[in-house]
Design brief:
Structural class: mainly alpha
Radius of gyration: 15 Å
Largest sheet: 2 strands, antiparallel
Shape: globular
Strand order of the largest sheet: 1-2
Number of domains: 1
Strand content: 5-15%
Distance between the termini: 35 Å
Number of strands: 4
Helix content: 25-40%
Length: 140
């Protein structure tokens, strides 16, 4: 598994394009994240797979990561129970956290493969956060 693919978490979040991961190469971003209350000690994040699900945002081990590990699967979309409630969209801070696009990401991984997903994950993220989404139609 190449390093870029290894940065895709079991839940479908692409840690390789996450600000917590990218802060390693951007001091201004690092300073901003610290100013939002993220402890300096947890930055930069190395990505879910590299820290075995110990998430700096939830301050502990991720239950979704543990579930995928117990089931010996790489991505939740490989699970017989997909999608489950662990992947439910986040209402809290949905405008800044990528958790609302996890199921879409996982469906893309299942359809196209993780390598192809990593080629378009930034585009997906930008469409969600910076584009206009119309219910039932997606990005405009």
């Amino acid at each position: 598994m190449d390093n870029r693919v290894k940065l895709v978490a079991p839940c479908g979040i692409d840690c390789g394009i996450c600000e917590l991961y990218m802060s390693r190469e951007n001091q201004q971003l690092m300073d901003y994240l610290i100013s939002t209350g993220i402890p300096k000690e947890v930055l930069p994040c190395d990505g879910c797979n590299n820290v075995e699900g110990k998430c700096p945002i939830i301050n502990g081990k991720c239950a979704t990561f543990e579930c995928a590990s117990e089931k010996n699967i790489s991505y939740c979309s490989e699970c017989d129970d997909f999608p489950c409630m662990k992947l439910a969209p986040a209402a809290d801070r949905a405008d800044v956290l990528p958790h609302n696009i996890k199921v879409y990401n996982l469906c893309t991984i299942k359809k196209d493969g993780v390598e192809e997903f990593t080629k378009k994950s930034l585009e997906i993220k930008k469409a969600y956060y910076k584009g206009k989404i119309e219910i039932g139609k997606g990005p405009k």
